[in-house]
Amino acid sequence: xxxxxxxxxxxxxxxxxxxxxxxxxxxxxxxxxxxxxxxxxxxxxxxxxxxxxxxxxxxxxxxxxxxxxxxxxxxxxxxxxxxxxxxxxxxxxxxxxxxxxxxxxxxxxxxxxxxxxxxxxxxxxxxxxxxxxxxxxxxxxxxxxxxxxxxxxxxxxxxxxxxxxxxxxxxxxxxxxxxxxxxxxxxxxxxxxxxxxxxxxxxxxxxxxxxxxxxxxxxxxxxxxxxxxxxxxxxxxxxxxxxxxxxxxxxxxxxxxxxxxxxxxxxxxxxxxxxxxxxxxxxxxxxxxxxxxxxxxxxxxxxxxxxxxxxxxxxxxxxxxxxxxxxxxxxxxxxxxxxxxxxxxxxxxxxxxxxxxxxxxxxxxxxxxxxxxxxxxxxxxxxxxxxxxxxxxxxxxxxxxxxxxxxxxxxxxxxxxxxxxxxxxxxxxxxxxxxxxxxxxxxxxxxxxxxxxxxxxxxxxxxxxxxxxxxxxxxxxxxxxxxxxxxxxxxxxxxxxxxxxxxxxxxxxxxxxxxxxxxxxxxxxxxxxxxxxxxxxxxxxxxxxxxxxxxxxxxxxxxxxxxxxxxxxxxxxxxxxxxxxxxxxxxxxxxxxxxxxxxxxxxxxxxxxxxxxxxxxxxxxxxxxxxxxxxxxxxxxxxxxxxxxxxxxxxxxxxxxxxx
Length: 660
Fold this sequence. Notes:
- The chain has 660 residues and is an alpha+beta fold.
- Strands 1, 2, 3, 4, 5, 6, 7, 8 and 9 form a nine-stranded mixed sheet that branches. A six-stranded mixed sheet has the order 14-13-16-11-10-19, with helices on both faces.
- Helix 14 crosses helix 18 (599-609).
- The longest helix has 19 residues, at 497-515.
- It is elongated, with a radius of gyration of 32 Å.
- 37% of the residues are buried.
- Mean pLDDT is 75; it is low at 342-465.
């Protein structure tokens, strides 16, 4: 057994620091909470390089006495509790005395502070070593500067996110402190640029600063008390939802938390109004007696533990659901002129109608979360029919009458099968004014959107290759004018003629789309869309990707973007919904190309133009199709069905009991 070592102070302090400060946002969080605990009503935050290079927090709080300044850097040194009993009634945001000590162990810290009627002093701390106290200049409060976070812990530094992602997380936390402390003025600077500012004018003003003034008209303002639990703040109405959870903020006794019990209660209250991939908007403050909640769960203090989860769940659920459902008690909870709906209104005009409308909107859906953008085009592009090829006659627009609003009649069995794949990208991209095929169309299988059998490689799908020497294969006939039978060695190969041709068309179209230059369409009126502080850095980081896809996008002031060009293939896309779904999972957008966005569209085109099962092919057509497969029996069609099934001689003999 190895010798047991007693770790030095330098080592165990660094280990402990990792529990409290894992990334720049957690350092900013701890410093802001210290300022709030000091009674500050004005706080300025500065970061550079996502907080890696610089974090500075300046407040006008009560300050730190000169004799306590060095002690502030010691572990477990705090002014917020004195006895063990104080842990049962914690009313401050910080209480462990670990934050400043942890930050000072993994960075270079400068502390300047002044108390009322005294002079200002400064002390530096680097790698946990506290310097001497010297005179400084500061009018009031405290200024803490943190430089080179994790400079002496390179392993931890390597695991930090890129600057923009770290900045986004810091911005998200600052925005929540603005919401959670509406009577405190905040200024937040990123690389010298003012990003967020509030004036301490109350909750409505804080909401307007973070989300824009328009959001207030979409929310109920509530102030409720039930069974000793107070709930106040803002919740979105029955028709106001967001694409991700960054619009949800919960504060318990003034502390920002993420708690599953409360979040589930709110989600359940909205359950009859929300649709798939929609999330309710809320900024809620819940006040509970200190003796029924434990905030001493984890050093980050991000979650809490309730004495009775069912009780808390029930109170939150009953209040929120009463407002949304328009019960008699709703009038007691809603304030400031917001009117709760009557029960009849909430059924007929709220979610019920929204769900009904959504159900009639048949659109091609996603590939099971494979990549966010891949499913958007078919869902949000105004749907139109694809012009067919294979010598099909064009139908006159003025002869269709009411049929213009129905699924276009596309020939199921083209008279001429062209195995040489002369279908061009224009056949795919050209649209007319007729309605579109949908997932209800019989030619698209029900599991169309669930195909996940492929991996994106070099711009188009590559399936596992199972090559055979097709020149040596012998054609033996077919089953049902659908399955072509070939013999090679001791194996028999059954090829689905529709699946094979569909896959070949699909690969051809994707390749042609990938190789051509992307044409752009200038919008007559530019589209402006707004983002919250969490979403803004995300979109900024994706601007090069979006531009490479053909979107003309640029920042438009603070928290907004301007779209003035779209790809020609997407020229009639619903931009608002398109970008809303991009933001559904702001961590999940991958580096994908235009041909990936249009994957479902291409797959539908390939399905429509491929030869059908039951169609009799000539000998030359069979030979041409098999030659194009090039002996690749491992392909799958875009829907995930196999192109070829192999039966060995041994398998067949076992069927007939020749061998066991």
